Amino acid sequence: MALPSTYSAWHRSGLKGSKENRLTIYRTDDEKLPTTLDLNDVVIKIHAVSLNYREIAMLNGTYPVDIQDKGIPCSDAAGEVIAIGSSVSRFSIGDRVCPNTSIGPTFDGGTDGSSIGVGTNAPGVLRQYAVFNEQHVVKMPENLSWEEASTLPCAGVTAWNALNGLQDVPQGAYALLQGTGGVSMYSLVLCLAAGIRPIITSSSDEKLAAIKKHSPTIQGLNYKSVSDQGAEVQRLTNGRGVHFVVNNTGPKSLMQDVSFLCERGGVVSLVGFLNGFDADWAPGEIMSLMYKAAKIQGISMGTRKDFEDMNAFIEKKNVRFDALLVDRPFAFANAKDAYDRLESGKFHGKIVINVE
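That's the Chaperonin 10-like protein sequence above. Prediction below.
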């Protein structure tokens, strides 16, 4: 396949946004691919991109990591290898792949070195073509569509690691999943595939009812209308408590999350900051971790091996993620509309943009 001389991409409008002076995104149509490839480069024709809440956080200045000035946004994509460098050994032309969101020595199997984030401090994937080193790319599961696979790199790997890679899961385990966004919904699908009984939270009974239709084992908890969430968690788990809490909201709820855990050995995975960075619990409350032999872990996506392990599980179990794609994909030209939909919060699952 001949490489194009130019292609289209979207960019953020600046380096640092704020609530008073938000960034926006704009399209360019004169991006250029390199005329020669490095030995280990792969060129990917991107077919689908999925959005994460952090895309909005970068525009309004609440994302706590440095970003590239006027960088190409978005970290999650699926595409086709259309050209390779002369020393590439991991891929062939025509392979269906996803870039790993976090790249660098630590994330590719090494032990040190600074990390690079696709779509944050490095160019993202909201574009028609991209070039990556072969070490920063994985084969997507054969059983998934482009749209499904585009949800894997950030939300998928984050959910996988928040559930400890589904290693040593106790029989009849429960998981509490905060909210109905990408990581929670991804965790929901993985829980069902692994035999973990999920409890998903929302302030909308309508959302909970729609999600519960996917499986009779899904339980819902409306955190606005339930006055005693701890008692409700005990009721829903037959007094056992949950083995996993996937925390999308931030530090404020951490001690309550620990109280929801089972008697010994549960884990709270901190994956987001939807409610900001403040907390009102006393420092001494952290001792509840000791009493329960529990842990709080921070999850920042994962390594290439994590990604590959997850993909192997998806293929083995024939896990599908079409239930996450409740909206029709947006056209590439309508990327701003996709951002508006994401910011509205009036959906559950993932927002996907088709790139054709």
